[in-house]
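dumping this here before i forget
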Amino acid sequence: MSMVRGSYAQLMARGERKIFVQWNDMYQRDLEYPAVFNIESMTSAYEDELEFAGTGPTPLKFENSPVFYTALIQGGTIRAIPLTYAIGARASFELYDDDQYGIIKQIPKAFSRSNRFTEEQVPWNLFNLGFSVINLSFAAIQLMTNQFERMPDGVGMPIVYKPKAILCAPANRFLARELLGSPGKPGTATNEINSLLGEDLGYIVGHYLTADAPWFALCDKQYHHLKFKWRMKPVMDFDDDFDTGALKHKSTMRFAVVPANWVGVWGSNGP
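structure:
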């Protein structure tokens, strides 16, 4: 369906003092997902992420006894398939030609805003749609750090993974600041120190988390495997319809978001 002059009559006559155009007059936030996700590119219809657990602890060998032979343990495979996201708009030739304020000609700018939101929201949905339930609190952060301290690899041997930051919704940013920045233990009137300060944790506010309660802990990006894979960055295109003269604008992009492995990520969806 095409946009036509009858639906946008105010654009046909001069005299409008100010037209508030949201994609020009309202600012979007800087992209947040690159601070969390590893950004990669891909050149094929899919990519497989394969995991090997390695070998277990070396056992004791008694005198003149045969050596114990083992084999590598192969884990599961996760396939990253880029999905296509596209948006389009069609305007009659007359609307395009008679628009006195150039609004219709700015459709590609509106598409850029749409693309930016989708590019941001899709990776954040990995957090919005997963994990268990526990409130953000002093005790909960202690529990999280203890679980990182005792984290094993795929064959049960201890590994070193240290969380770097708490990820929370905007409503919890004050609580995160109190828990991670207060010199004294939060919520007490004693002189107890805040033992969480020794964990050297920061916090990240995720504005695309869809609920207030969820919170997460992340290692540095080099130690986790949350991946955003570009197959095709946004491409703008336009054409006209020979018979009607209507102008068509289109924007297309392709990418995949995949948790190749959840090691290095801890989370809760709150109560």
